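Render DUF559 domain-containing protein in 3D.
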Amino acid sequence: MASDSPDELRIAVAHGGVLGCASVVREAGLWVLPLDDHVHVALQPHGHVSPHGGCTCVSHWGEADVSAGRVCLVDALAQLLLCLGEDAFFAALESALRLRRLTRAELSRLKSRIAESRSWLVELAGAESESGLESLMKVRMHRLGIALAAQVEIVGVGRVDFVLGDRLIIEVDGRPGHEGGESRHKDRVRDAAAAGLGFDTLRFDYALVVHDWPLVEAAILEKCRRGLHLDSWAEGVREAAGAGAV
């Protein structure tokens, strides 16, 4: 959700700088992990903070391109990486790519603005993720050495968020009101249809992905450990069932 820019801009000016980091990213309508709701203020390298009442601002010192009281989106994303970390940066970057807020030249400049050790984040980012939750799933699985096929169309089921291996569907539900009865029923129908085709489904909501990631990771890794994401597992079950049939 975009920030209340007039108020945030006024606060940034009172603080002695311009809007930066997460404030600019939120204002652009990009997906941002809700790690804080502070006003982020960019200041020149030798800038000075001005005391103002009730200040909870987060200050960022450094050179940046400024226009209309804000740093540019490239500089805001670079600041966000240092401030809120890789996951928040990656989700915001993929949101920007999906909404076509960055040109190829700007993406290249962003890559040059961040540490080389983190350039893989820019290389991994794409425009296919439909929510920040999907971006978080993608980048966190990548760190574990697990590749996911995204936005896969399965005949008889529809488009699913991810497929891991041959037969493990991973869905992340972050849409407002998605836990309503009708949406929940549709999900169950899809899961049943997928099961009828030999797929297994793991479904995670916003709270799990954002606030209880270790539980999500453990569930996925256990499926992989047992080979439940591979066709060979399903074939073995069918063979065992056939051998035991009377």
